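[09:14] KT: can someone run the structure on this one? pasting the chain below
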Amino acid sequence: MSDAHHHADHDFFVPAPSLWPPLTCLGAGVLMAGIVLLLHATPAILGQGTITVGLLTILLGAAGWFKDLINESRARGFKAVPLVLDLGNRYGMIFFIASEVMFFSAFFAAYFYLRMHNAAWPPANIATLSIDLPIINTLLLLTSGATITWAHHAVLHGRRSEAILATFLTWQLGVFFLVCQAVEYHHAAYTLSSGVYGTTFFMLTGFHGFHVFVGTLLLMVTHWRLTRGDFSRNQHFFFEAAAWYWHFVDVVWIGLFLFVYVL
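[09:31] RB: done, C-alpha coordinates below
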Protein backbone atom coordinates (compact mmCIF):
# COMPACT_ATOMS: atom_id res chain seq x y z
CA MET A 1 0.00 0.00 0.00
CA SER A 2 1.30 3.46 -0.81
CA ASP A 3 2.36 6.00 1.81
CA ALA A 4 -0.70 8.07 1.03
CA HIS A 5 -2.88 5.34 2.46
CA HIS A 6 -0.89 5.36 5.70
CA HIS A 7 -1.05 9.11 6.28
CA ALA A 8 -4.75 9.58 5.55
CA ASP A 9 -7.59 7.11 5.92
CA HIS A 10 -10.23 6.95 3.21
CA ASP A 11 -13.62 5.31 3.04
CA PHE A 12 -12.40 3.13 0.18
CA PHE A 13 -8.99 2.10 -1.01
CA VAL A 14 -7.42 -0.29 -3.48
CA PRO A 15 -4.83 -2.60 -1.87
CA ALA A 16 -1.43 -2.86 -3.49
CA PRO A 17 -0.88 -5.88 -5.77
CA SER A 18 0.00 -8.92 -3.69
CA LEU A 19 1.21 -12.43 -4.44
CA TRP A 20 -0.23 -13.91 -1.25
CA PRO A 21 -3.97 -14.25 -2.04
CA PRO A 22 -3.49 -16.15 -5.34
CA LEU A 23 -0.72 -18.25 -3.76
CA THR A 24 -3.06 -19.23 -0.92
CA CYS A 25 -5.79 -20.16 -3.41
CA LEU A 26 -3.30 -22.22 -5.40
CA GLY A 27 -2.34 -24.06 -2.23
CA ALA A 28 -5.99 -24.84 -1.50
CA GLY A 29 -6.39 -26.28 -5.00
CA VAL A 30 -3.27 -28.41 -4.64
CA LEU A 31 -4.52 -29.63 -1.26
CA MET A 32 -7.86 -30.75 -2.70
CA ALA A 33 -6.07 -32.46 -5.61
CA GLY A 34 -3.92 -34.28 -3.06
CA ILE A 35 -7.00 -35.52 -1.19
CA VAL A 36 -8.46 -36.88 -4.45
CA LEU A 37 -5.17 -38.58 -5.31
CA LEU A 38 -4.95 -40.08 -1.83
CA LEU A 39 -8.37 -41.67 -2.25
CA HIS A 40 -8.05 -42.86 -5.84
CA ALA A 41 -4.39 -43.01 -6.90
CA THR A 42 -1.56 -45.40 -6.23
CA PRO A 43 0.95 -45.27 -4.73
CA ALA A 44 -0.41 -43.45 -1.66
CA ILE A 45 2.79 -41.41 -1.40
CA LEU A 46 1.64 -39.44 -4.45
CA GLY A 47 -1.46 -38.16 -2.66
CA GLN A 48 0.38 -37.64 0.62
CA GLY A 49 3.11 -35.63 -1.08
CA THR A 50 0.57 -33.46 -2.93
CA ILE A 51 -1.33 -32.80 0.30
CA THR A 52 1.92 -31.77 2.01
CA VAL A 53 2.80 -29.36 -0.81
CA GLY A 54 -0.71 -27.89 -0.69
CA LEU A 55 -0.62 -27.36 3.06
CA LEU A 56 2.83 -25.77 2.97
CA THR A 57 1.73 -23.45 0.15
CA ILE A 58 -1.37 -22.40 2.10
CA LEU A 59 0.72 -21.71 5.21
CA LEU A 60 3.25 -19.69 3.21
CA GLY A 61 0.55 -17.63 1.51
CA ALA A 62 -1.36 -17.05 4.75
CA ALA A 63 1.83 -16.06 6.61
CA GLY A 64 2.74 -13.51 3.95
CA TRP A 65 -0.81 -12.21 3.81
CA PHE A 66 -1.03 -11.77 7.58
CA LYS A 67 2.36 -10.07 7.61
CA ASP A 68 1.12 -7.46 5.12
CA LEU A 69 -2.06 -6.87 7.14
CA ILE A 70 -0.11 -6.48 10.38
CA ASN A 71 2.32 -4.03 8.77
CA GLU A 72 -0.64 -2.04 7.45
CA SER A 73 -2.17 -1.85 10.93
CA ARG A 74 1.10 -0.76 12.46
CA ALA A 75 1.57 1.90 9.80
CA ARG A 76 -1.87 3.25 10.65
CA GLY A 77 -0.86 3.47 14.30
CA PHE A 78 -3.82 1.28 15.38
CA LYS A 79 -6.15 4.24 15.31
CA ALA A 80 -9.83 3.79 14.56
CA VAL A 81 -10.53 3.05 10.90
CA PRO A 82 -13.42 4.63 8.98
CA LEU A 83 -16.82 3.00 9.52
CA VAL A 84 -16.98 1.67 5.97
CA LEU A 85 -13.65 -0.13 6.31
CA ASP A 86 -14.58 -1.50 9.71
CA LEU A 87 -17.89 -2.83 8.41
CA GLY A 88 -16.10 -4.31 5.42
CA ASN A 89 -13.77 -6.24 7.72
CA ARG A 90 -16.62 -7.48 9.88
CA TYR A 91 -18.89 -8.47 7.01
CA GLY A 92 -15.98 -10.22 5.33
CA MET A 93 -15.34 -12.34 8.42
CA ILE A 94 -19.04 -13.03 8.89
CA PHE A 95 -19.42 -14.19 5.28
CA PHE A 96 -16.29 -16.35 5.64
CA ILE A 97 -17.72 -18.08 8.72
CA ALA A 98 -21.06 -18.45 6.91
CA SER A 99 -19.28 -20.25 4.07
CA GLU A 100 -17.71 -22.57 6.63
CA VAL A 101 -21.17 -23.24 8.06
CA MET A 102 -22.25 -24.34 4.58
CA PHE A 103 -19.34 -26.81 4.42
CA PHE A 104 -20.25 -28.42 7.71
CA SER A 105 -23.96 -28.36 6.88
CA ALA A 106 -23.26 -30.42 3.76
CA PHE A 107 -21.14 -32.92 5.71
CA PHE A 108 -23.74 -33.24 8.48
CA ALA A 109 -26.50 -33.67 5.88
CA ALA A 110 -24.54 -36.51 4.27
CA TYR A 111 -23.99 -38.09 7.68
CA PHE A 112 -27.69 -37.94 8.61
CA TYR A 113 -28.76 -39.24 5.20
CA LEU A 114 -26.42 -42.24 5.41
CA ARG A 115 -27.42 -42.92 8.99
CA MET A 116 -31.13 -42.94 8.13
CA HIS A 117 -30.67 -45.22 5.12
CA ASN A 118 -28.52 -47.87 6.80
CA ALA A 119 -30.19 -50.55 8.90
CA ALA A 120 -27.26 -50.72 11.32
CA TRP A 121 -25.31 -47.63 12.32
CA PRO A 122 -22.47 -47.93 12.83
CA PRO A 123 -22.16 -51.04 10.64
CA ALA A 124 -21.63 -54.35 12.43
CA ASN A 125 -18.03 -54.64 11.19
CA ILE A 126 -17.02 -51.29 12.73
CA ALA A 127 -15.55 -51.27 16.24
CA THR A 128 -16.36 -47.76 17.44
CA LEU A 129 -13.98 -45.72 19.54
CA SER A 130 -14.29 -45.09 23.26
CA ILE A 131 -16.02 -41.85 24.18
CA ASP A 132 -13.38 -40.98 26.82
CA LEU A 133 -11.15 -38.84 24.59
CA PRO A 134 -14.09 -37.00 22.95
CA ILE A 135 -15.33 -36.08 26.44
CA ILE A 136 -11.89 -34.70 27.30
CA ASN A 137 -11.81 -32.79 24.02
CA THR A 138 -15.24 -31.34 24.74
CA LEU A 139 -14.06 -30.08 28.11
CA LEU A 140 -10.92 -28.64 26.48
CA LEU A 141 -12.88 -26.70 23.85
CA LEU A 142 -15.53 -25.48 26.29
CA THR A 143 -12.77 -24.23 28.58
CA SER A 144 -11.03 -22.56 25.65
CA GLY A 145 -14.27 -20.77 24.79
CA ALA A 146 -14.30 -19.34 28.31
CA THR A 147 -10.64 -18.28 28.19
CA ILE A 148 -10.96 -16.49 24.84
CA THR A 149 -14.02 -14.64 26.18
CA TRP A 150 -11.95 -13.68 29.23
CA ALA A 151 -9.21 -12.44 26.91
CA HIS A 152 -11.70 -10.38 24.88
CA HIS A 153 -13.07 -8.65 27.97
CA ALA A 154 -9.51 -7.97 29.14
CA VAL A 155 -8.72 -6.28 25.79
CA LEU A 156 -11.88 -4.18 26.00
CA HIS A 157 -10.92 -2.97 29.48
CA GLY A 158 -7.26 -2.36 28.67
CA ARG A 159 -5.90 -5.20 30.82
CA ARG A 160 -3.19 -6.36 28.43
CA SER A 161 -1.43 -8.78 30.80
CA GLU A 162 -4.68 -10.63 31.42
CA ALA A 163 -5.43 -10.74 27.71
CA ILE A 164 -1.98 -12.18 27.00
CA LEU A 165 -2.41 -14.90 29.65
CA ALA A 166 -5.93 -15.85 28.58
CA THR A 167 -5.01 -15.99 24.89
CA PHE A 168 -1.97 -18.12 25.71
CA LEU A 169 -4.18 -20.56 27.65
CA THR A 170 -6.65 -20.69 24.75
CA TRP A 171 -4.17 -21.76 22.09
CA GLN A 172 -2.56 -24.18 24.53
CA LEU A 173 -5.95 -25.86 24.97
CA GLY A 174 -6.22 -26.01 21.18
CA VAL A 175 -2.88 -27.84 20.99
CA PHE A 176 -4.02 -30.33 23.66
CA PHE A 177 -7.21 -30.93 21.66
CA LEU A 178 -5.21 -31.75 18.54
CA VAL A 179 -2.95 -34.11 20.49
CA CYS A 180 -5.97 -35.95 21.89
CA GLN A 181 -7.50 -36.23 18.43
CA ALA A 182 -4.24 -37.60 17.02
CA VAL A 183 -4.21 -40.25 19.78
CA GLU A 184 -7.82 -41.10 18.98
CA TYR A 185 -7.06 -41.52 15.28
CA HIS A 186 -4.04 -43.69 16.11
CA HIS A 187 -6.27 -46.12 18.02
CA ALA A 188 -9.10 -46.19 15.45
CA ALA A 189 -9.68 -49.65 13.99
CA TYR A 190 -11.03 -48.18 10.73
CA THR A 191 -9.85 -45.62 8.17
CA LEU A 192 -11.21 -43.05 5.77
CA SER A 193 -11.79 -45.82 3.20
CA SER A 194 -13.64 -48.16 5.60
CA GLY A 195 -17.05 -47.75 4.02
CA VAL A 196 -19.50 -44.91 4.48
CA TYR A 197 -19.08 -44.81 8.26
CA GLY A 198 -15.30 -44.39 8.13
CA THR A 199 -15.60 -41.80 5.35
CA THR A 200 -18.18 -39.62 7.12
CA PHE A 201 -16.49 -39.98 10.51
CA PHE A 202 -13.07 -38.87 9.32
CA MET A 203 -14.45 -36.19 7.00
CA LEU A 204 -16.45 -34.58 9.83
CA THR A 205 -13.93 -34.93 12.64
CA GLY A 206 -10.89 -34.39 10.39
CA PHE A 207 -12.33 -31.27 8.77
CA HIS A 208 -13.15 -29.92 12.22
CA GLY A 209 -9.65 -30.82 13.43
CA PHE A 210 -8.19 -28.86 10.53
CA HIS A 211 -10.25 -25.86 11.64
CA VAL A 212 -8.95 -26.25 15.19
CA PHE A 213 -5.42 -26.29 13.74
CA VAL A 214 -6.08 -23.08 11.77
CA GLY A 215 -7.74 -21.45 14.77
CA THR A 216 -4.80 -22.38 16.98
CA LEU A 217 -2.39 -20.74 14.53
CA LEU A 218 -4.57 -17.61 14.52
CA LEU A 219 -4.54 -17.51 18.30
CA MET A 220 -0.76 -17.96 18.37
CA VAL A 221 -0.40 -14.94 16.09
CA THR A 222 -2.92 -13.04 18.23
CA HIS A 223 -0.95 -13.88 21.38
CA TRP A 224 2.28 -12.73 19.76
CA ARG A 225 0.67 -9.49 18.64
CA LEU A 226 -0.69 -8.87 22.14
CA THR A 227 2.83 -9.17 23.54
CA ARG A 228 3.93 -6.58 20.96
CA GLY A 229 1.21 -4.16 22.11
CA ASP A 230 -0.50 -4.17 18.72
CA PHE A 231 -4.12 -3.91 19.94
CA SER A 232 -5.92 -1.06 21.65
CA ARG A 233 -9.28 -0.99 23.40
CA ASN A 234 -10.91 0.54 20.33
CA GLN A 235 -8.90 -1.13 17.56
CA HIS A 236 -8.51 -4.90 17.82
CA PHE A 237 -10.48 -6.45 14.99
CA PHE A 238 -7.84 -9.11 14.30
CA PHE A 239 -8.36 -10.34 17.85
CA GLU A 240 -12.15 -10.28 17.43
CA ALA A 241 -11.97 -12.20 14.16
CA ALA A 242 -9.83 -14.91 15.76
CA ALA A 243 -12.26 -15.10 18.70
CA TRP A 244 -15.29 -15.40 16.38
CA TYR A 245 -13.59 -18.18 14.48
CA TRP A 246 -12.72 -20.03 17.69
CA HIS A 247 -16.29 -19.80 19.01
CA PHE A 248 -17.49 -21.20 15.66
CA VAL A 249 -15.10 -24.14 16.08
CA ASP A 250 -16.50 -24.71 19.59
CA VAL A 251 -20.10 -24.78 18.40
CA VAL A 252 -19.35 -27.21 15.57
CA TRP A 253 -17.62 -29.57 17.99
CA ILE A 254 -20.72 -29.67 20.23
CA GLY A 255 -22.72 -30.89 17.23
CA LEU A 256 -20.05 -33.45 16.37
CA PHE A 257 -19.84 -34.72 19.92
CA LEU A 258 -23.62 -35.15 20.24
CA PHE A 259 -24.40 -36.67 16.84
CA VAL A 260 -21.22 -38.59 15.95
CA TYR A 261 -20.06 -39.80 19.35
CA VAL A 262 -22.96 -39.77 21.84
CA LEU A 263 -25.81 -40.86 19.56
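[09:33] KT: thanks! The CA atoms of residues 63 and 143 lie 28 Å apart.
[09:34] RB: yep, looked fine to me
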